[in-house]
Amino acid sequence: MTKDILRAIRFPLLFVLIIVLVHFYSTYYEIQLSHYGIYPRRIDSLLGVITSPFIHSDSKHLCNNSIPLVILGSSLFHFYNRLALRVWGLSILYTGLLLWLGGRPSFHIGASGLVYALAFFIFFSGLIRKHKPLMAISMIVVFIYGGLVWGIFPREAHISWEGHLSGAFNGLFWALYYKHEGPQRKKYSWEVEEEIINSLDGIEVIYQEIIPKEQTQESVSITYDYVLKK
Fold first, then answer.
1. What is the rounded distance in angstroms from the CA atom of residue 230 to the CA atom of residue 228?
2. Same structural domain for residues 101 and 40?
3. Alpha carbon separation from 7 to 31, 74, 77, 196 (Å, rounded)
4. For residue range 103-161, what is the model confidence (pLDDT) as tens digits?
5. Which residue numbers in the chain have pLDDT < 70?
6. pTM (predicted TM-score)
7. What is d(CA 150, CA 112) in angstroms, rounded to the nearest whole number?
8. Closest C-alpha to 18, from 79, 100, 84, 73
């Protein structure tokens, strides 16, 4: 159990460590990195799709994103281990691209879009899969981060609500896209039987009827249209 937790927290911690190092480097040397963020619809700002999550305006901004990244990221890697890296990487890429396409003309920085993507993925994945342990995690996410939903609306001018909305959309999208991968709810026997029946419905089955030798030396092939009644 301890090994699983350590394995799950390893990547999120490393990611946050890089963010912290970037922030302290820019603060110590008084380097302005905001121009490495996303400036919507500017071709020379496309690199910001990748670099913007590592850049934060101040320590408060850094803390507001770092703690959720560790908590949500650890949950992602623990419960969706095989999907975690894909979801993480795709969320960064497509959240950034959506923001680049639809954001306000200003530099957008920070990992909050990724935070929203992870929160919405974990929440909707648990509900879609109807897997009780995962649904419990979904409820915990709502309890801890339920207030995130207000961040997708334009409330404060200095907050990139477009980035939050892009992240939320991506989280929902990947939850739907990967709903058949990763942990699944255990199916009852009657559900399995129903799936088998549905898969056989309308299948044409070929039977071969063998006529006894005393009647004929030839076999006759008969085709039946085999449809199971539900």
1. 6
2. yes
3. 34, 9, 8, 38
4. 999 999 999 999 999 999 999 999 998 888 888 888 888 888 888 889 999 988 889 99
5. 1, 186-230
6. 0.81
7. 13
8. 73
Length of the chain: 230
Closest by CA to 37, choosing from 22, 24, 17, 27, is: 22
- 202 and 136 assigned to the same domain: no
Q: Is residue 182 part of a domain?
A: no
Task: Enter the tokens of residue 122.
Answer: 């974990």
Distances (CA, A) of 12 to 19, 72, 95, 114, 204: 11, 9, 18, 12, 52
Q: Shortest CA distance to 158 belongs to which of 99, 117, 107?
A: 107
What is the domain extent for residue 153? 2-177
pLDDT of residue 201: 63
CA–centroid distance for 49 within its chain: 18
Contact between 108 and 159 (Cβ < 8 Å): no
Q: d(Cα 39, Cα 48) in Å, to the nearest integer?
A: 8
Which pair of tokens denotes residue 21? 């190092």
| For helices 112-129 and 161-177, angle between their N-to-C axes, nearest 10 degrees | 30
- 23 near 62, Cβ under 8 Å? yes
220 φ, ψ (degrees, to nearest 5): -115, 125
Q: Both 85 and 146 in a single domain?
A: yes
| End-to-end Cα, the chain, rounded Å | 45
